[in-house]
Amino acid sequence: MMKVVSIFFSLVLLMTCNDGTTDRSGVDTQLYLGDGDHQPLIVAFGGGDGGNGWTSDRVKDKREQLIAKGYAFLAVGYFGTAQSPGTLDRISLDAIHDAILSVANHRKIDRNKIALLGVSKGAELALLLASHFEDISCVVAMAPSHCVFPAHTFMASTSSWTYQGEEVPFVPMTWGAVPAAIQHDLLSAFSIMLKDTEAVEKAAIRVEDIKGSIFLLSAKNDEQWPSTPMSLAAIERLAKNNFPYPYHHVAIDGGHFEVFDHFDSVYHFLDQNFPADL
Predict the structure, then answer these.
(1) 65 vs 34, 43, 71, CA distance in Å?
(2) pLDDT tens-digit profile of 126-141?
(3) How far is Cα 272 from Cα 67, in angstroms, rounded to an integer?
(4) Cα–Cα distance between 217 and 172 in angstroms, integer?
(5) Using an 8 Å Cβ cutoff, are 117 and 140 in contact?
(6) What is the pLDDT of residues 236-269, one digit of tens each?
(7) Per-residue confidence at 277, pLDDT binned at 50, 70, 90?
(8) Nearest-CA neighbor of 24 among 133, 165, 123?
(9) Rounded distance between C-alpha atoms, residue 87 and residue 184, angstroms
């Protein structure tokens, strides 16, 4: 989820180590367990406002419904918490993956059944993680992107993510997008950035490398970024590469945050493609 602020031109204070270097490997996790054994694990990521949003009361009903269905639920804060980097800048995919596997070793969890659930920037993260690590068997991406966008720093000149110590390619902020970003018109800013087709191709998430089912839930009237066109681009990529696992896209008639009003479609997809054995 993103606050309606300029994510590109906000001055932020990075969390630093004692030696003055930036620590981007911290991960904030909160595990919620049901009563059963061998619970499939759903790992949830919030969006560009940071913190660990899936621990909040706003989504308590959704979290508890998933637990009632037989899933273990792991809320992950990847920046903006006391345990994680202060801003979304070159966050380590490896560190997040390691944190997930550490929790998946819990005696009540089936570590062979891990699904990722992400919203907005967290959906970008979920798809990207699953494209790099083969032990993810399902992805639910709500209001997602199909490519990587810049870090939330003053100059937007670095990637949001790293993999094995290297920055993940991203679509850069272009001069043409600057006026829209300054005016907090994020939809226009992202749409202008996406016109750099060469950069988009380099930064495209290789969704075809995911080893499991994929559900995309987008918003036709998304005011934050064009989640429906980007979801369609991801679906086209899956079809072009003869993706062997189930995948589905639902585009709602609503805005960015209204995807939460359609969570029944998430439950349905999980029931069909990532079931929990109660």
Answers:
(1) 11, 14, 9
(2) 999 999 999 999 999 9
(3) 17
(4) 25
(5) yes
(6) 999 999 999 999 999 999 999 999 999 999 999 9
(7) confident
(8) 165
(9) 19
